[in-house]
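Hello forum,

I keep getting stuck at the same step: I have a sequence, I want structure tokens, and every attempt I make locally crashes halfway through. Rather than fight my setup again tonight, could one of you with a working pipeline run this one for me? It's a single chain of 16 residues.
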Amino acid sequence: NFPLDLAAIEVPSLNG
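Reply #2:
Ran it on my machine without issues. Output:
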């Protein structure tokens, strides 16, 4: 959760 880059991986919903 800390790394912003991994945010997309943890929450793919935001990325689509």
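The helical segments are 4-10, 12-15. If your local run keeps crashing, start a new thread with the error log.
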